[in-house]
Amino acid sequence: MTTPALVVEGLYKTYALPDGGRTTAVDTVSFTVPAGGSLGIVGESGSGKTTVARMLVDLVRPDAGTITVNGRERTPGVRGGRPRGPVGRGAERLRRAREIQIVFQDPYVSLDPRLSARQCLHGALRLHGRHQGRAATTRVDELLDQVGLGKREAEARPRGLSGGQCQRLAIARALAVEPEVLVLDEAVAALDVSIQAQILLLLAEIRRETGVALVFVSHDLAVVGHVTDDTLVMRRGRAVETGPTARVLDAPEDPYTRLLLSSVPREGWDPAETVRMRGQLTPEP
């Protein structure tokens, strides 16, 4: 039996409020992504999907729950529901980073404006000790070609690249360390529709070529429908529905999933019906 690329069990995260209370951002969320598979995590703003993504890559420490990559637990600072110590540093931190990489929504913010595309990729390889000298140059050329960036783009800094080109560079940088899992947090939300299509095709091709597992966090159900095998729907920190993407989008079982689908403008769309469906949802505590 093949070991799943990613197993998440019972992730839980709360944040302190100014009045001394706490609010729950993620409430016992669990899911599995097989090796080479893809999972979409969808929901409205505030549903907790981005918090899940940030816990996967150590940007946020869970209060409870486990995260396992290729059979190896990587959850930092959690035991019996209580935090324990800081996230690892040095070699251990780099090892963890190589397991799961993330691509953010705004590539201009995530890229160093001082570095050309080629320098950016060389820096990632050097940091993780992947390649040196001529081997590093060869690997950088391979990465640039893999994401469709040519010689001009290779020597350009982020301000000299389009949004789509910057996102291609961000994907190449994430792939440089050969991760087991690639998390994409609204990675095409800031791009024009035609550029979105190009990036989605690129991600599908990369998954076929490398076998990397994808976790695609998005509010856009159409995007998720194109790039994922399975979908998890979140509402107010909880997973309300999960299953094969085609089934979830074509025959949703939960009223909230049906509401999300009814909110997408289309021919004959009636916004009043969407408002009515929202009013019928059972309020959550």
TrEMBL record:
Domain ABC transporter stretches: 6-261
Cited CDD domains: ABC_NikE_OppD_transporters
GO molecular function: ATP binding; ATP hydrolysis activity
Domain of life: Bacteria
Keywords: ATP-binding, Nucleotide-binding, Transport
A single GO BP: transmembrane transport
Signal peptide residues on this chain, from the entry's feature table: none
UniProt record similarity statement: Belongs to the ABC transporter superfamily.
Name under which the protein is recorded: Putative ABC transporter, ATP-binding protein
